[in-house]
């Protein structure tokens, strides 16, 4: 491991790398230490060793493998978040099972995740280096903000009882009054990234079952993730929440989450109906789904009846979309710095003057009710 001194005066971010594979510990450590802002202070082979070294070394960030013999990454994460919370970035496989385990980790308080390179080809392993570095650096800014969400209770929210009333169910006909959803109704377009699952849970679970606007969401997630995430959210909220499908009607009482790997737009099909249109085009954008793409379509179709919300996340995706909604005379809300896990996306919007109001996460649901 290299010394902690760097070419600049900033103190490097101290990272603990946890993986049962010696090869992956060496590979991940090398990726991280290519950036002078990071210093790998130790490695661990399993969950128990990770807990011990987290106490001994006091790292700023931990990268945590999920599948390990003995105590796995989820168990270790739960122990760390219960005793001495630290920003943890999970390293998981891009599979359906990996997605479910990673969502479990987010429930437990993990800040973010990257995908373990399963290939032995050096070029494919190095492909994740920029993302790994960026997410570890972003996670370090969340130190002091991370907290454990109760395992088995979703993202810190108690699930609705099975008998709880819902404003709509899959396949049901439109709620009463929904014929004005596009002609005179409103839509809330939400964009988020790192820290978004927890933020979305707090907001959506706070909306009443008769919330009169449609909701469309882009949460930066890959395929395999958005469907199980939407299913979990559906158990926590009074509104129906599901992964969007091409042609879905945008209507009150339904929250549509853009599927990973697809661009979501809203498009008018008739004088009364607006539907979801999904495409695989990347348009040279970093993200699919992209907040900008979704919000720009909302601005075009809904005009002053569009409400843009930008939440915690890295980068500046959503800036152009929020600018478009504001330019169309819609309303724009941004999460405040204090309640963000990563203050990147809201900061870009606020500094550009594209936020009508800056709102704490705990007040966002109430603010949406007031605006709608």
Describe the structure in brief:
This protein is of the alpha/beta class. The protein contains twelve helices and 14 strands.
Annotation keywords:
372 residues, alpha/beta, 7-stranded parallel β-sheet, 5-stranded parallel β-sheet, 33% helix, 19% strand, elongated, disordered N terminus
List SSEs in N-to-C order.
Answer: EHEHEHEHEHHEHEHEEEEHEHEHEH
How many DSSP-defined strands?
14
Q: DSSP strand (E) fraction?
A: 15-25%
> Roughly what percent helix?
25-40%
Shape: elongated
Tally of DSSP helical segments: 12
N/C terminus separation: 54 Å
Mean of the pLDDT scores? Answer: 86
The residue ranges in which pLDDT falls below 50 over 5 or more consecutive positions are 1-8, 150-154, 161-182
Topology:
Blueprint: E1 13-18, H1 22-33, E2 38-44, H2 47-57, E3 61-65, H3 73-83, E4 88-92, H4 96-108, E5 112-115, H5 122-126, H6 129-140, E6 187-192, H7 196-204, E7 214-219, H8 226-236, E8 240-243, E9 254-257, E10 263-268, E11 274-279, H9 291-302, E12 306-310, H10 319-327, E13 331-335, H11 345-351, E14 357-359, H12 361-371
Helix pairs in contact: 2-3, 3-4, 7-12, 9-10, 10-11
């Amino acid at each position: 491991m290299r010394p902690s001194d760097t070419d600049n005066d900033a103190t490097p971010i101290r990272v603990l790398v946890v993986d049962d594979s010696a090869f992956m510990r060496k590979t991940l450590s090398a990726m991280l230490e290519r950036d002078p802002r990071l210093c790998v202070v130790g490695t661990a082979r399993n969950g128990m060793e990770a807990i011990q070294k987290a106490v001994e070394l006091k790292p700023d960030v931990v990268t945590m493998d999920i599948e390990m013999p003995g105590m796995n990454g989820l168990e270790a994460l739960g122990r760390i978040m219960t005793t001495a919370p630290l920003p943890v970035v999970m390293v998981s496989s891009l599979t359906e099972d990996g997605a479910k385990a990673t969502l479990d980790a987010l429930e437990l308080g993990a800040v973010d995740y990257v995908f373990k390179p399963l290939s032995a080809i050096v070029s494919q392993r190095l492909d994740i280096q920029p993302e790994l570095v960026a997410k570890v650096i972003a996670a370090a800014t969340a130190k002091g903000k991370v907290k454990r969400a109760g395992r088995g209770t979703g993202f810190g929210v108690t699930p609705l009882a099975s008998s709880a009333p819902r404003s709509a169910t899959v396949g049901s006909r439109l709620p009463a009054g929904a014929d004005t959803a596009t002609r005179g109704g409103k839509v809330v377009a939400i964009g988020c990234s790192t820290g978004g699952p927890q933020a979305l849970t707090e907001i959506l679970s706070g909306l009443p079952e008769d919330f009169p606007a449609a909701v469309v969401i882009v949460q930066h997630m890959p395929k395999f993730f958005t469907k199980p995430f939407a299913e979990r959210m559906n158990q926590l909220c009074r509104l129906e929440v599901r992964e969007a499908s091409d042609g879905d009607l945008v209507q009150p009482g339904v929250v549509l989450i853009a599927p990973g790997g697809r661009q979501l737009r809203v498009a008018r099909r008739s004088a009364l109906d607006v539907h979801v249109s999904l495409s695989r085009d990347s348009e040279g954008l970093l993200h699919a789904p992209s907040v900008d793409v979704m919000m720009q379509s909302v601005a075009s179709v809904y005009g002053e009846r569009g409400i843009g919300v930008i939440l915690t996340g890295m980068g500046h995706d959503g800036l152009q979309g929020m600018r478009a909604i504001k330019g169309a005379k819609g309303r724009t809300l941004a999460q405040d710095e204090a309640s963000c896990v990563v203050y990147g996306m809201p900061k870009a919007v606020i500094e550009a003057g594209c936020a009508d109001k800056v709102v704490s996460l705990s007040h966002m649901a109430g603010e949406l009710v007031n605006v709608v």
